[in-house]
From TrEMBL:
Keywords: Oxidoreductase. It holds the Pfam family Aldedh. This is aldehyde dehydrogenase (NAD(+)). The active site is at 253. It comes from the Eukaryota. It comes from Apodospora peruviana.
Length: 488
């Protein structure tokens, strides 16, 4: 890439516009989000209207005609140039993500590392035609044809990776794509959309910012062929209901309440840092991190003590602090929900071995939506902290003794996103893990992902999948293609 081309792809992070038909489009009304580390306002962003939605859908439909006719290799070439442009702006994008999402530098950097790996690997994937029959008389083949205009409705917790996991599969398979970021985290998304406008043909990739009413405008639009949603189960049900009127294709990735079962034969020193980080990363605001830890009674006391000691040393600080490991709750609404759950500690008499309601001793910061990392020791199975998804830096550590019973307890939820078993006996751990009811199951790890492997939930955690070839097929209509070699 020459210097002039590289300069053309450099981003300015002071102004933010919708990206519609490759034009940076202002809106009559604007709004702003809040930096959760400081509670200070961030820059103004667009508030999209029905007219903006109509314009974007129309542009996407017009672009679809030519985009779907390109080969996989041609579409992959565009996506690779797009990936290179993101990489050229990585420092600014990572800083912006940290400010809006409240992610410390290591966490924001980790998200973009996953983004880059996902883009680089997904462009290598293909959906081959599947030959079911090839006889002297006929062939029968399954083809996968793109749907049309797709929409990604993206949450605030992993706003870039979760969008890219929809975007690259949609574009690679020949669809056009409208990216709707969360009102809490629109900034980095809009800037990545600007890069897309410099690379893709008009209408192929568009980004719309708005208030809470923007999602319903997109789910109800008759020109949208598919909605891919990531967010809460309650909102996912509304999305599905809205899409039913126009028979849109829908993928839903919703809440989780992931269990980790720790057996008595683990190397405690080796497991503690992994389980602890996988419970508290991004202050617990990831759908697929550990939300419930079940520890065998033979090692329970030692495990609990050492987990508390490890987590106590994780620095909680504003996202810009280079030593911060855990940042704030991302927004005031979620902060209120998390505080209400912390209030249950006193109401229910839960035993805390670390953290609790903020006071002079454990208050992480004077400003910002911060809560101290908190570990609850062996609360009842029907406690809110066990039954609900906290989406904050608070986790129960529960005791178990019987394999069959702990599997029942781990499965006793309407959620089914992920679960893990930790043991030195791989055969035993695998046997236990196969009985868990979730879309992703891990042995001796958790929240391990790959662009080649599908990602989705069971039960109320989702319908359909993103990522991998299976996720790509979700952006297509399967087509039965029959050819008679002799007319009879």
């Amino acid at each position: 890439m020459g210097s002039s081309a590289a300069d053309n792809l450099k981003l300015d992070f002071t102004t933010f516009y919708n990206v519609i038909d490759n034009s940076l489009t202002p809106t009559k009304h604007t709004r702003h989000a809040i930096n959760p580390s400081t509670e200070e306002p961030l820059p103004e962003v667009p508030v999209s209207t029905q007219e903006d939605v109509d314009d974007a859908v129309r542009a996407g439909q017009e672009a679809f005609t030519a985009w779907k006719e390109l080969s996989y290799e041609e579409r992959a070439g565009y996506i690779t140039k797009f990936t290179d442009a993101i990489e050229a702006n990585l420092e600014g994008l990572t800083e912006m993500l940290g400010k809006e999402a409240g992610k410390p530098i290591p966490s924001a950097g980790m998200e973009f590392a996953l983004v880059m790996g996902h883009l680089r690997e997904t462009v290598k994937l293909r959906i081959p035609d599947e030959v079911v029959e090839d006889s002297e008389e006929r062939t029968a083949t399954i083809r996968y044809t793109p749907l049309g205009v797709g929409v990604g409705i993206i949450p605030w917790n992993f706003p870039i990776l979760l969008a890219i996991g929809k975007l690259d599969a949609a574009l690679l398979t020949g669809n056009t794509f409208i990216w709707k970021p969360s009102p809490y985290t629109p900034y980095t998304s809009l800037k990545i959309g600007e890069l897309g406008a410099k690379i893709f043909p008009p209408g192929v990739l568009q980004v719309l910012s708005g208030n809470e009413d923007l999602g319903p405008k997109l789910t109800a639009h008759p020109g949208v062929a598919k909605i891919s949603f990531t967010g809460s189960t309650a909102t996912g049900k509304k999305v599905m209901q809205s899409c039913a009127a126009t028979l849109k294709r829908v993928t839903l990735e919703m809440g989780g309440n992931d269990a980790a079962i720790v057996c008595e034969d683990v190397d405690i020193a080796a497991v503690i840092p992994k389980v602890s980080m996988l419970s508290f990363i991004h202050s617990g605001q990831i759908c697929m991190v550990i939300k419930r830890v079940y520890v065998h009674e033979k090692i329970y006391d030692e495990f609990l003590e050492k987990m508390a000691a490890f987590v106590k040393n994780l620095k909680v600080a504003p996202a810009g602090d280079p030593e911060a490991m855990l940042g704030p709750i991302q927004n005031a609404m979620q902060f209120g929900k998390v505080k209400d759950l912390y209030n249950e500690i006193g109401r229910q008499g839960w035993q805390t071995v670390l953290g609790g309601l903020p006071d002079q001793q454990n208050r992480p910061a004077e400003k910002g939506f911060f809560m101290p990392p908190t570990i609850i020791a062996n609360p009842p199975d029907d406690s809110r902290i066990v039954v609900e998804e906290p989406f904050g830096p608070i986790i129960p550590v529960l005791k178990w003794s019987d394999e069959k019973d702990v599997i029942r307890r781990a499965n006793d939820t309407m959620m089914g996103l992920g679960a893990s078993v930790w043991s030195s006996d791989i055969e035993r751990a695998s046997r236990m893990a196969k009985k868990l009811e979730a879309g992703s199951i891990w042995v001796n790890t958790h929240f391990e992902l790959s662009p080649h492997m599908q990602f989705g939930g069971h039960k109320w955690s989702g319908m359909g999948v993103d990522w991998g070839v299976l996720g790509m097929k979700g952006w297509c209509n399967p087509q039965a293609f029959w050819v008679r070699k002799v007319i009879v």
